[in-house]
Amino acid sequence: MSTRTGPGPRDRLLDAAQRLTYQQGVGVGVDTLLKEANVARRSLYEHFGGKDGLIAEVLRRSADEDGAAYVRTMGAAGDDPRRRLLAVFDELGRIVAAPGFRGCRYLAADLALADPDHPGHAVTRAYREHVTGLFEAELVRLGHPRPARAATQLLVLVDGALAVGATRPDADPVDGARELAEKILAEA
Question: What is the mean pLDDT of the chain?
Answer without folding.
Answer: 95
